[in-house]
Amino acid sequence: MRFPATLATAVPLLPDPDEAREWAERELADPAYQAAEPSVVDRIAQAVGRFLADLLRVPDTSGWGPSALIVLAIVIAALIVVAILIWGRPRPLSRATRPAHALFDEDDARSADDLRADAARAAARADWDEAIVLRFRAFARGLTERGLVDPPPGATVRAFCREAAGALPTLASPLDEAAEIFDDVRYLRRPGSAERYRAITDLDDQAVRTRPTPAAAP
Question: Which residues of 197-213 are buried (b: 16+ CB within 10 A; e: fewer)?
Answer without folding.
Answer: bebbbebbeebeeeebe
